[in-house]
Amino acid sequence: MAQPLSSTSAPLFDLAALPAAPRAAALAAAPYTLITGGAGFVGTNLAKRLLAAGQRVLVFDNLSRSGVAHNLHWLHATHGDHLLVYVGDIRDPAAVREVVQHAEAVFHFAAQVAVTTSLDDPITDFDINAHGTLNLLEAIRAQSVPPPLVFTSTNKVYGGLEDLKFTLGGARYQPTDKGTRAHGIGEQRPLDFHSPYGCSKGTADQYVRDYARSYGLPTVVFRMSCIYGPHQYGTEDQGWVAHFAIRALENQPVSIYGDGQQVRDILFVEDLVDAFLLARQHMPQLAGQAFNIGGGVQNTVSLLELLQTIGQYKGAEIPLSFGPWRTGDQQYYVSDIQKFRLATGWQPRHSVAQGVAKLYQWLCESRGLPQPKIPRFAAPKSSPKVALA
């Protein structure tokens, strides 16, 4: 059952041995930023930024995903003074109401994240992604002053993009349409949910937007492309950039679904955190809108190109195997990020090479391996000033 934990109750190395903290004292002492799924990869990086600035953060997570206990351990060891942890599930409306009660802002990342898992168990997928999000929206709506909500949706809401035509150039697909090639996929693209995962996240996406229209809640939707960076424990189903790097470090072959020439825009997680904070800062102007968020046309890579880059860092070619295309997979998806850039001034600061190098270095460090020989890069671009309060 849900267990709220204060940062002062005990170290987080053995969660089962922790005593329950007094709920009123732990949760009501002062407002906090609530991060659902906050022990995951994205949540950890956002929590790190806020905690380092001296802000109070409540991580709400059921700790079901592999690797998140390591992230929680690291957050507590590094920034424990301002960290609260509530071990609970987004499907539990009572737990959700409790953690929302004193939240001054909410970032909603708790989700079932794999297309393959959704195909195996679509009911659980829907219960977590759609019904869980509705639990959160209702808890926010019940507050006298509803906190702003930033929700991470997915580019899968646009479906397989079967109407687009592609050519092959080098090791990647390219759209034949000049506008798509120049800018990527924009928010005006019709929604076309594919796979149970696409349906459940798309349902949540639309509920988050409609609660702004119907109830006046301050909500924003991010339709995410591929995010990567430190504290990511990727698998072949989700977090594939980190998964490829981890397989390379473990001297294991990489399995690719499709031909490996599919293209994605990838976004380094620190740049995503900038976007989260700007969305919160500009919420009055952005409420009720959806934004495509990713690396954009300047940060595209095919799977084969990414593996070549990782192989250069490793100093050895990575062995590959190929399987059939998966349901809902896209030959090409690149976010048109102009809408959010024009609204907030945001743009990705890290190139693909810079970001992948940082991820690879972190993976080596976290495993106690020698640091790789990676080329020197120019400093990342400057970002717009973001408010942390």
Proportion of residues in extended strands: 15-25%
Provide mean pLDDT, rounded.
89
Calculate Rg over CA atoms: 20 Å
Biggest sheet, spatial arrangement of strands: 1-4-3-2-5-6-9-13
Distance between the termini: 32 Å
Task: Please give the number of β-strands.
Answer: 16
In terms of per-residue confidence, which ranges show pLDDT below 50 for 5 or more consecutive residues? Answer: 4-14, 16-22
Major beta sheet summary: 8 strands, mixed
Describe this structure in words.
- By secondary structure, the chain is α/β, with parallel strands linked by helices.
- It contains 14 helices and 16 strands.
- The chain has helices at residues 23-28, 41-52, 68-79, 93-100, 115-120, 122-141, 178-183, 195-215, 240-249, 269-281, 283-286, 303-314, 338-344, 352-366, and strands spanning 3-5, 32-36, 57-61, 83-87, 103-108, 149-154, 166-169, 172-175, 219-224, 226-228, 254-257, 263-268, 290-293, 300-302, 320-323, 332-333.
- It has an eight-stranded mixed beta sheet with strand order 1-4-3-2-5-6-9-13, sandwiched between helices.
- Strand 2 (32-36), helix 2 (41-52) and strand 3 form a beta-alpha-beta unit.
